Amino acid sequence: MAFIDYYKTLGISKTATEKEIKTAYRRFARKYHPDVNLDNKEAELKFKEINEANEVLSNPENRKKYDQYGKDWKKSEEYEKAQRQQSQHRGSHQDFSNEGYSDFFESMFSGGRSSQGRANSPKFKGQDFNAELRLNLKDVYTSQQQVLTVNAKKIRLSIPAGVENGQVIKIKEKGGLGRNGGPNGDLYIKFVIDNHTLFKREGKHLYKRVDLDLYTAILGGEITISTFNGEVKLKIKPETKNESKVKLKGKGFPIYKKEGEFGDLIITYYIEMPTHLGEKEIELFKELQKIKAE
């Protein structure tokens, strides 16, 4: 491993003040942060070098050791001891330049510095993931299980009945892997609910249009309509007006995370005017017209 000049990494001189070091570190940290450079190995490596440089140079004692012993300043005592032993063994003093420090310590201490460096590096939360799950309105009338594949991993998801269009739920720590021992990111799932039914949904309530023939509207009667969970019979009052509304309590949509609780189904009657009348029907309407005029 070649010698890395921490001053050069932060773009500062060897006489830089503590304030200059801090300013340089913040500028480069923002530029090369992993969350800003997704899947960029070069930026990730650069970010690690910047953190390592700041770890050393922002601490006056560590900086002094680095200025004397280079990148492997943490093993300065071991180096001096090993250097003395080699000097005694060879009978002469051997000069180790900064360029040789890294290779020397890699062989002497089996890469111990790198593991220690990782332990002291700041912890970062993994990237949050966002996913979109498209379902039909009928699918979310009851609770169900879904298996999603996120980042090549299968996640079993329990979807409570009543989830709404546009609703976002968070699954903790199912996002990107944390860095340097930090927590994993979270997974945010947005639900897109397609409605291909005859019902209009507004929160927990359902709305439905029911066409009513003129004769039933005038005379009253009984009709059968479909709801989300079966058919129901409705009694029509005589002289029912156009756009009259009827509320069917508990026949609406499930309330999210409130098992057994439902909204209401609101029925709006739209009266259909008869068309293609026969001669007899026209005569009858004329008779009614005369009676009404008297």
Descriptive notes:
The protein is α+β, with helices and mostly antiparallel strands and 294 residues long. The chain folds into three domains: 6-120, Orthogonal Bundle (Helix Hairpins), CATH 1.10.287; 129-194, HSP40/DNAj peptide-binding domain, CATH 2.60.260; 199-293, Urease metallochaperone UreE, N-terminal domain (HSP40/DNAj peptide-binding domain), CATH 2.60.260.20. Helix content is 35%, strand content 25%. The protein has helices at residues 6-10, 18-32, 41-57, 60-69, 76-90, 98-109, 112-120, 214-219, 279-293, and strands at 129-136, 144-150, 153-159, 168-171, 187-194, 199-202, 205-213, 221-227, 230-236, 245-248, 265-272. A hairpin with a 2-residue loop joins strand 2 (144-150) and strand 3. Helix 2 packs antiparallel against helix 3. 16% of the residues are buried.
Give a quick summary of the entry.
Helices cover 35% and strands 25% of the residues. The chain has 294 residues and is of the alpha+beta class.
Keywords, separated by commas or semicolons:
294 residues; alpha+beta; Helix Hairpins; HSP40/DNAj peptide-binding domain; 3 domains; 4-stranded mixed sheet; 3-stranded mixed sheet; 11 strands
